[in-house]
Predict the structure.
Amino acid sequence: DADVTQTPRNRITKTGKRIMLECSQTKGHDRMYWYRQDPGLGLRLIYYSFDVKDINKGEISDGYSVSRQAQAKFSLSLESAIPNQTALYFCATSDPGQYNEQFFGPGTRLTVL
Amino acid sequence: AQSVTQLDSQVPVFEEAPVELRCNYSSSVSVYLFWYVQYPNQGLQLLLKYLSGSTLVKGINGFEAEFNKSQTSFHLRKPSVHISDTAEYFCAVSGRGSQGNLIFGKGTKLSVKP
């Protein structure tokens, strides 16, 4: 089984809809991250969490919110989706004792019409 | 703060030819350096990492990278590529003692042609 899983893998939604992307991990890592990938822009950090009580904004947090329900679960919400949020979204985890190496989920492809 | 520049957005190469994907970084502190690979329709997986010690780092699938502190570079090389190496490659940097965030370059698409 995969160590970092994301659901759904693909999602098409309409402008203005609320949508939640979910991430679960079995690696036992405290740190979790959400990124978005756009062609030619690489990965940009949306939010990160160093433990259940610690949530931090990343480079591009506007229009997004997150919830850390447990050590193993970290959800990303788009309160009112807009077309320029169409992207590939990745969840990642890391262990502070592992030199900041991050482990990635398979990604969620989100299309906002 | 750190930043990463991948100097080539696309690199076409013929099968069995050597390849070098270039990465430069800037940082005011010592760093950890990483190369990740993303195959089509997949997530990112670690190719190799530089933490300390030997500046030549070997990774999976025959790739290697050399850390050059004076030139602030971490170029990725493979002496002979295969069709299956077609993918997007990302260089990433993290400051030692930082809060653990990785800063990614914008990626280099490697296309291996028969």
Summary: The first strand of chain B starts at residue 3 and ends at 6. Chain B touches chain A through 22 residues (CB under 8 Å).
